[in-house]
């Protein structure tokens, strides 16, 4: 019985090794520089631009066949500006998932392209205590593509560069308006859409 169990275990390990051969797991951490050009429609009818810098954590799986999957999340400090108002700084976070293909892959370098979908959230406030103030909350679903290149310094340590392009579709964005003494206050939906460009540079660990 022990011999049979040992043979079965050896067979399972062999099959697993064959399946896993050539597959690659990557964990990266980098600096990201999100840039957005958005339109706040309906009652607000303003253009919103954002730019900033933050931290990105990426997981990239490359199958031996070339099929590639990616998941990443970012947390950034962004400066948001609406025409006629001073910029406001606030936090922006995103989470994205994607699937695609690695077109180029050798011992040192790989290049992949993926279709991506994600969720984007940020807050900003405009005006000051002596005038009317608008507090804006953005929630969007993002669709787009990533192109990621990865270079290995050693068998495990390397660097990566990622270019992300997104189109944002509103998913519950809103704004709140109040005058200087809060005597007039109301809130409403703020349908938001537009484009985002997200370049990222960082270090990568392959395992």
Q: Could you explain how this protein is built, in words?
A:
- The protein is mainly beta and 207 residues long.
- The chain has one helix spanning 2-20; strands at 24-32, 35-40, 46-62, 67-82, 88-105, 109-126, 133-152, 157-170, 174-178, 185-189, 192-206.
- Strands 1, 2, 3, 4, 5, 6, 7, 8, 9, 10 and 11 form an eleven-stranded antiparallel beta sheet that branches.
- β6 (109-126) and β7 form a beta hairpin.
- The longest helix is centred in the first third of the chain and has 19 residues, at 2-20.
- The radius of gyration is 23 Å and the shape is elongated.
N-to-C CA distance? 35 Å
Task: Kindly provide the radius of gyration, computed on alpha-carbon positions and rounded to a whole number of angstroms.
Answer: 23 Å
Main sheet: strands, sense, barrel: 11 strands, antiparallel
Mean pLDDT: 83
How much of the sequence lies in strands comes to over 45%
The low-confidence runs, each spanning 5 or more residues with pLDDT under 50, are 11-20
| SSE sequence, one letter per element | HEEEEEEEEEEE
């Amino acid at each position: 019985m022990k011999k049979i169990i040992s043979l079965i275990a050896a067979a399972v390990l062999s099959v697993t090794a064959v399946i896993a051969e050539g597959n690659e797991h990557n964990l990266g951490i980098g600096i990201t520089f999100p840039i957005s050009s958005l339109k706040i429609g309906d009652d607000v009818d303003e253009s919103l631009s954002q730019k900033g810098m933050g931290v990105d954590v990426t997981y990239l799986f490359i199958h031996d066949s070339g099929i590639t999957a990616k998941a990443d999340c970012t947390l950034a400090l962004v400066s948001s500006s609406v025409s006629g108002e001073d910029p406001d700084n606030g936090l922006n976070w995103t989470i994205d998932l994607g699937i695609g293909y690695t077109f180029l892959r050798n011992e040192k370098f790989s290049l992949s392209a993926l279709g991506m979908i994600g969720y984007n959230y940020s807050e900003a406030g405009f005006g000051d205590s002596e005038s009317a103030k608008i507090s804006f909350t953005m929630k969007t679903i993002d669709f787009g593509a990533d192109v990621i290149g990865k270079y290995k310094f050693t068998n495990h340590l390397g660097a990566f560069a990622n270019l992300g392009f997104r189109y944002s579709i509103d998913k519950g964005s809103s704004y709140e308006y109040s005058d200087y003494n809060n005597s007039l206050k109301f809130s409403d939906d703020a349908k938001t859409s537009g484009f985002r460009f997200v370049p990222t540079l960082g270090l990568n660990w392959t395992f």
